[in-house]
Amino acid sequence: MDELRGKENYILPNNYIPVMGKNVLQTILSRLPRKSLLELIQVWPKIKSTQAQASEGDSEHERRVLNTRILKEAKSWADGSKKISKRKIIDKIVFEYWKNGLSLLQLSQIDCQLIVDRPNAFQWVHSTARDSHGKESVISLDPKKFLHMLAADLSHLYLTYIYVCRHSKLPIVIVRIQLFDLQAFSKNEVMGRPHISSHRPYFLAIPANSPHVIHTLTSDLASNIILQSVEKNLSHDRRNVLHLVTNPEERPVRSLEAMHIFYGNSRFSNSLGIWTPYAHGAVDILPLGRVKEHSCLSNVKKLPENTYTNKKEEMKEIARRRFKGVVEIDRKTTELFDVPEKIKNKRSRKEVNNRISTLNLPSHEEEEEEEEANKDIADAYNSNSIQPNEFSSIAPVQFIEFTLNEKLPIIDKQAPNEELHSGEKRSSLRLRFTGSDIFAGLHELATKVTDDSRIMLDPTKIPSWLTGEEGANSGMVKDGKLYRQ
To answer: Which Gene Ontology terms describe the biological processes this protein takes part in (predicted)?
Structure first.
């Protein structure tokens, strides 16, 4: 087992190749678009721990020749001089180039690339860091120190592999943690099966300047241990111990960008729905700002005032104001979050998974080599499976639930017209919504019917908690006010 442990006890090295069937590897690779597969093939031959091997014990020269050939072929496919399908690229990787299997580093890069290429591929929840007084505390980490402490903590119980990358578009550091159990020696050894079994990779997304940690679902013992270990190593000051508080009732959100808007350093987190233009800066102006350069007077399109030609157009305009505010915002050019200057200056068009560290790099030379290679991965962030339209929310929510606890009216039969009065009894009506973008659906529903007798959702009367103002927060509605869970 010494070979598996690497330089640090129970921490697997970058070049360790877990035993996986060819069909499993094909499935993993098929989740990425063709463009990303070509980019990864152009990166792997440049990194020593991900280079292809012709056979066991081949010389340095043979390995260099092989990887040069792979790189040349990949470039010819990428520039279009030779045509090749996505299926053939996958077969080349699995059966020809890396026929011995993919290393942990390669599998980690594939997963992190998937987060960029397919933003809806994972389900995310969040935990909040609080100090001993119960107040939210902004997380400030030394990444390398934190990761070494985290790995040392987890290695007491599991074989561990940790990979870190920085998201290309969001100011978020993504940490991929994979745990392995050591299996007892048995007949499996003769059958050629591995002596370690893998748990599902666990992801942390740590926003800049935020008290929140975004992470995948905590569904089993291993993921619970990871979260406890993260909590233990968040605090660098013993006088100010931080605790992670997780809402067990929170429903997951599929979009990492939406989670970052809700829990990252985005101004939109508390300015959704009708208040969206305030977060955009299209309503208020900075104290020292120039009035002539205000967005209302320049590049932001103002909505028309009372120029409706029919009832449907009027209802559509009112609904847009209730769900998106009085100023129409171009989502393509709007910054939905604050990007620190350091990240903004370093970020380039082709930087997707700019790796900042892994725990098992055998030399500083290889780390520099890999950082340089990763600059060649192109940005595929905008390849979403769901195309936005005029109703799309800035931060899509897939599940939300409200409990209506309002006073029930009673009929006063002794009154002349049997008037209604509010009684002491309260309702307990639960409204549950599910879908790919709930508030976009409600927005569209509010524009469909204009006949007062058939209208299902009146945009002039819809409560604020049904327009997306509260983000992904479920809760109880009492006397017209939403109390979050």
So the answer is: CENP-A containing chromatin assembly; chromosome segregation
